[in-house]
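tool=predict chain=A
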Amino acid sequence: MDSQFEGPLGFKFGIDAIIGLIPFVGDFATTGFSLYLVFQAARFNCSSSTLLRMGLNVMIDNLIDMLPFIGNLFDFWWKSNDKNMALLEAHLQNSQELGSQSRMILTLICFILVGFISLSAYFSYWVIASLYQFLQSA
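tool=predict ok
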């Protein structure tokens, strides 16, 4: 999802960065896919440290996405889904049966990400409303 296309000079980017350009909808859609990937990792009984690292990748992506334009550029570079796929693949290659602690960690990650998404939506709304008010007063 992060490296399907190749741009100039061999720079790779994916549909995640392109969809992320769509205000509001893009961030929700890409975060939904990222959460799905973390959920699948929990189903494969990844360790809690792996799930936390995956959640951290998604949270960093969402946190920087709150910044207009900078967040969109960051999406082309960060590639949190590629990082998370590498973590999942490493787990599958060295698979060990772990406890059910993964569900608790996954729930925590989901709650935190929903908070980040809500904060991102509010921040985006505030920026657009402020810009609209500024343009009307000019």
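The mean pLDDT is 79. Residues 5-137 form one domain.
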